[in-house]
Structure formats: structure tokens, C-alpha cells
Amino acid sequence: MPTSQLMTMLVFLIILVHIALVSSLNLRPGYYSETCPEAEFIVRDVMKRALMREPRSVASVMRFQFHDCFVNGCDGSMLLDDTPTMLGEKLSLSNINSLRSYEVVDEIKEALEKACPGVVSCADIIIMASRDAVALTGGPDWEVRLGRLDSLTASQEDADNIMPSPRANATTLIDLFHRFNLSIKDLVALSGSHSIGEGRCFSIMFRLYNQSGTGKPDPAINPIFREELYKRCPLDVDQNTTVELDSTPRLFDNQYFKDLVAGRGFLNSDETLFTFPLTKKFVKLYSKGQDEFFRDFVEGMLKMGDLQSGQPGEIRRNCRVVNSVADHLVVGPQHRMESNHKSI
Ligand code: HEM
Ligand SMILES: *[C@@H]1O[C@H](CO)[C@@H](O)[C@H](O)[C@H]1NC(C)=O
Ligand SMILES: *[C@@H]1O[C@H](CO)[C@@H](O)[C@H](O)[C@H]1NC(C)=O
Ligand SMILES: *[C@@H]1O[C@H](CO)[C@@H](O)[C@H](O)[C@H]1NC(C)=O
Ligand SMILES: *[C@@H]1O[C@H](CO)[C@@H](O)[C@H](O)[C@H]1NC(C)=O
């Protein structure tokens, strides 16, 4: 057998050994207590610094959990950059010009690689960082289950097909969440994540000026709030201009639900939760009781965090790229650094 063929076989053997061939992971709290005991402190520390540097960034990172977990499970796939042979999820309809603060995840990964190289997955980073974003902005704190692997691929097409439009009505959202075994309660509680962060004028132009092709605004918008939105998002606005998603965008609280009751929801997908009977009762409940909101939100985040792809994975060294073939060979640190930036 020629050496090149032997080499190829060897490479594949090594990859097989390195890629965990599991269809179901046993996620559990304290997963890194032996292999990287500082992991959760490190993540929270970087998130604290991100919050001080740019308050919105922690909301932007929190959104990653939704966009990661809904598209083929919580596997860090949305963090992969496009390659010549793979269209990743960053440019998908819901993510392009919208998902942001990828650099915060890079910073977390870098800190973790320094402390315990090759141990903590990017998928778990998203889960820990999302929890931290909520806890650091005044929301609940909770124990997360860990032990996820990072995907070997990403799918722009799947992201396009799955992620909901800001124009979605409650029926569409209920159906979508149901596909992931998430209840109507989970849908409303998880939408409460819009208690922090901002959205672009782009996401509400139709709602303000031509709801369902009527040439009129969405009648569910409170008239005073509508005038405010006309000023913030005039017809000729740069549609990347952002507006806060609730009236206390730096604070994780139940103000979002109070705003919905007052007709002050930003997106169609927000206000629809109040206008639709099956979701309305939860909006009312959470608008009156922050404790109930926090309790159900945590439950929803845990359920969403358990979604899995059943596909093989790895612990990525750089969250933006799949480990290359050379990373699976025993090579010096010099080579590893270089190969990190190439794709296979
Ligand atoms: C129920 C269906 C949902 C829809 C249709 C939706 C849609 C959107 C849209 C359109 C934006 C603004 C994007 C832009 O204009 O660039 C946004 C922002 C955001 N979403 Fe959602 N979302 C949903 C559920 C969720 C869930 C479940 C989470 C997290 C658990 C989440 C977290 C966030 C956060 C934190 C922001 C603000 C991000 C920032 O400031 O950068 N969303 N969402
Ligand atoms: C919700 O939106 C879907 C998809 O756009 C549409 O088919 C359906 O008729 C809408 N449902 C209601 C109650 O408006
Ligand atoms: C939803 O639950 C059913 C029954 O427990 C299970 O077979 C299915 O795989 C679950 N779907 C998802 C997306 O987790
Ligand atoms: C509103 O939308 C309808 C249907 O999509 C379209 O025919 C109409 O030209 C739009 N009107 C304006 C003012 O953009
Ligand atoms: C927002 O900014 C991006 C990047 O600068 C640009 O490509 C895009 O066209 C802008 N989007 C809108 C809706 O103006």
C-alpha cells in the first residue's frame, strides 16, 4: 500500500477516535468540575467585563442560545464562519446584520483555552454565557447542565427554514415551539428574553407602515407608542438603527410583559402574544408576577438547552472553525496554531 494511502487511513482512524460517536449526550451540572473547575467562573468573569464595556452585548450573546439550540440542537453550529465548502448560519435570514457580539464568545473561549485547553465546548459556552447574561442584568440565576459537543458543520438552509420571522403570529410560534417539545407557556416565558436588548427598525418597517399589505400600521400598537416608533423609525431611516425591545432594556425583569399589555411590544411576534387568547393568559400572569416569569423562564431555558442534534461532535479549539484534520494528529503546538485557521 502506498504511504499516502496509509497516511489517509491513519488520519481517518485518528479522527474516529477523537470524534465522540454519541447520539445522546448525558448533560449534567458540574460537568467540568474535575477537568476545568474554574470554567463557570471564567465565563462569568468575561461576561461581566463585556457588560461593562458594552451593556447590550450580553443580551446579544443571550440570543445565541435560541439561535443555536433551535437549529439542529445546542451544538455551537451558529458560531461557525462560512468556508468555501460550507455556508454557515451567520448569513441566514434571521442572523445576517442582526446576530452580534460573536467576539465575546471568542474572548471566553480564549480564556478557557488558556486555563484548560481543549476541554470546554463552544456549545456549553453559549449555555453558560446566556445564563450569566440574565443573572448579571437582574434576572434569575440557575444551575446549567453541561457536556455538549460542538458540531462539525452548520446549515444556512436549516437556519433559514427554522428561525421565525419577527412578523410571525402566535399560531405560527406555538407550532414552531411545539416541534421542539416546548409548550405555549415556554414560548411566552422564553419570549420574555426580549426584556433585554434591541431590535432594528428593519424588523418593524412592515408593522409600522404596511401591516399584512393593508398600507396601515398594526392596529395592536398603542397610538402613543406608534408615534414614538414613527419618530425612531421614519420611512427613510437607516434600517440598521436600533430601538430597545422593552422600556427597561438593560434590566432583565417583567417589564416586557407590562409593555405588551400596554400595546408597547416592539415586534409583531411580541405583541401577538397578548392579542392571541392562548398566549394572553401567560402574558397577563407574568406582567403581574415577576417570580412566576423567572421560574418559567428558567424552566424554558433548561428545556431549550437540552435540545440535541444526535450528530457526532468535538471540542472546537476556536469557536469559528471546525478543528482541522491536522489537529487530530499528534503535532507540535506551532502546527496546531496554524491549522486552526484553515478549513478542511
Ligand atoms: C418567539 C420567537 C422569537 C422571535 C420571532 C424573535 C425575534 C427577534 C428579533 C427580530 C430580534 C431583533 C433582531 C434585529 O432586529 O436585528 C430579536 C432580538 C433578541 N432576541 Fe429574539 N425572538 C424570539 C425568541 C427569542 C428567544 C427564545 C430568545 C432567548 C431565549 C431571544 C432573545 C433575544 C434577545 C436577547 C434579543 C436582543 C439582542 C440584541 O440586543 O442584540 N429571542 N429577536
Ligand atoms: C398566522 O400566520 C400564518 C403564516 O403566515 C398564516 O397562514 C395564518 O393564517 C396566520 N394565522 C392567523 C390566526 O392569523
Ligand atoms: C419530543 O418528545 C418526544 C417524546 O418524548 C421525542 O420522541 C422527540 O424526540 C422530542 N423532540 C425533540 C425535538 O426533542
Ligand atoms: C403594502 O403591501 C402590499 C402587499 O404586499 C403591496 O401591494 C403594497 O404596494 C404595499 N404598500 C406600500 C405603501 O408599500
Ligand atoms: C445594515 O448594515 C449592513 C452592513 O453595513 C448593510 O450591508 C445592510 O445593507 C444594512 N441593512 C439595512 C436594512 O439597511
Strand-helix topology:
Elements: H1 3-18, H2 39-53, H3 56-69, H4 102-115, H5 122-136, H6 156-162, H7 170-179, H8 184-191, E1 198-200, H9 205-209, H10 223-232, E2 242-244, H11 255-261, H12 268-275, H13 277-288, H14 290-305, H15 333-339
Antiparallel strand pairs: 1-2
Helix pairs in contact: 2-4, 2-5, 3-5, 8-13, 8-14, 11-13, 12-13, 13-14
Bound molecules: protoporphyrin IX containing FE and 2-acetamido-2-deoxy-beta-D-glucopyranose (4 copies).
Cofactor: heme b; Ca(2+)
EC number: 1.11.1.7
Organism: Arachis hypogaea (Peanut)
Question: What does this protein structure show overall?
Answer:
The chain has 344 residues and is an all-alpha fold. The protein has 2 domains: 12-162 and 314-339, Orthogonal Bundle (Peroxidase, domain 1), CATH 1.10.520; 170-304, Peroxidase, domain 2 (Orthogonal Bundle), CATH 1.10.420. Helices cover 48% and strands 2% of the residues. It has a two-stranded antiparallel ribbon with strand order 1-2. It is globular. Bound molecules: protoporphyrin IX containing FE (HEM) and 2-acetamido-2-deoxy-beta-D-glucopyranose (4 copies). One 2-acetamido-2-deoxy-beta-D-glucopyranose (NAG) is lined by residues 180-181, 307. Protoporphyrin IX containing FE is lined by residues 56, 59-60, 62-63, 65-66, 98, 100, 164, 166, 168, 173, 190-191, 193-194, 196-200, 202-203, 245, 267, 269.
